[in-house]
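Annotated sample (chain length 439).
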Amino acid sequence: MTMPSALGKLPRYRALLPMVMSYAASGGSLIVSSAAQLLTFAILARFLGVHEFSLFVAISAVSAIAVHLCGVGGTECLVRRVARDHSMYPAMLGHNILLISVSGVLLVIIGAIALPYFFDISTNGAVNGLEITAMLITNIVLVRCILFSEQVFIAFSDFGSANKVVMGFALIRTAAAVLACLAFGVSTLAGWIVWQFAAHAVMLFFCYLALRKLGRPKFKLVREELRLGLFFSIPFILKAARQNADLLVLGIVASAEIMASYSVARRIIESSYLSVDAMNRIVYPGTAKASHGGIHKATDRVKKLFLAALAISIAAATAVFICAPILPYLFGHDYTSLVLFVRALCWVVIPVGCWAIAVEALGASGNQGARATVMGLGSLIGAGVAAWATWYAPPTGTFISYYVIETLMALAAWAVYFRVVAKSRKVASQTGTAGDVAA
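Output written by the structure step:
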C-alpha cells in the first residue's frame, strides 16, 4: 500500500472512531452493570438462605415477565420515532407515561391478588399481601420507569447519560445489598423488600432529575403505535416465559444443587450477551434512520453489524470459558456443578448474538409484525422444547435444547429478514424509487 492511498483511508477510519468509542463506553457500562448484578445476586444468595432466596427468585421471575407488559412496548416506538424526529419527544413521552401508569397499576393489582396464593413471605396473610405488593411495585413499575429513562437518552443518541443510568442502577442495587446484608444483617426476604424498594426509588428520583431538562410531556396516546408496541412487547413476554420453562421443570426433576448451579450459570451466560447488547444499544437509532423509507436501504449496515456481532460473541464466549474456574470463589463452593455448567453453556451466546442483529434490524425499520412472529413463535416453541428436553434427560437435555432453540432462532430470524428486505426492494421499485435500492 502506497503512502497516499493509506493517508486517503484515514478519514474513513476517523469516521468510525466515534462509534468505536461509543461502543467501548456502552460495553463498559454494561459489563460493570453485569458484574454489579452478579455481586448482588451472590450476596443475596449467601445471606437470605435457600428458602428465602428461592422465594425472591420465584417472585422476581414472575415480575420479569410482567415488566415486559408494563408500558405495552411503548419504549421502542419512542426510540424509533424520536431518533428520526426530536420534535416527537413530548408526544412520545406522554404516550409512554400513560401506558406505563395504566398497565403498571393493572399488573400490580392482578399480581397482588394472585401471588399470595402461591408464595408465603409472612405467615400473616395481610402482611404477606403487602410485602408481595411492594415487591411487585418495585420489580414492575419502578424497574420499567428506570429502563424507560435509559431508552429516552438512547433516542437522543446521548449514550453517555444512558450508560450512567445502567451503571447507576446496578451500583445502587449492589450498594443496597451490601448495606442491608453486610452492615445491617438483613437475612429475610421481608427485610430485603424494604431495601430494594428504597434503592429503586432513589434511582428513579435521579432519573427524573436528569429527564426534566429534555422537556415536558404531551399527554396523548399515539394510536398508530399501540399495535406496533404490542407486537414489540409480546415476544419479550414469551421469551421470558421460555427462559423460565427449563428452570421450572429442572426444579421438579433435579437436585437442589443442580438447580442452583444451573440458575447461576444461566445468569452468567445472559450477562455475557451484554457484549452484543452494548452494540445494539448504540446502533439502533442509526439503523432506524438508515431504514427510513425501507429496510433495503440498511442492508450494508446490517451486514457489517452481523460480522461485528459474530466476532464480539465469539470473544465473549471464550472469555467466559476461560474465567469459569473463579466462579466458586464468588458464589461459594457449594455450587459444585457451576464451572461445568457455565463451560457447557457459554457458546450459546454466538447464535444468540447472530439472531439478535436480524430482529433488531426488523424492529428498527418498523417491521414489528415480522419481528414479533420470529421471537414469539421461537419463544413459544422453545418453551415446549426446553421443558420436554429437561424432563426427559436433565440436565444434559436442557443444555442440548438451549443450543437447538437458539440455532433455529438464528436461521428463522435471517430467513424472515431476507424476505422482508426482498419485499421492501420490490415495493421501492414499483413506486419509482428503484434508484435508491442498492444491492
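Annotation: DSSP finds 15 helices and no strands in the chain.
Annotation: Residues 22-222 form one domain.
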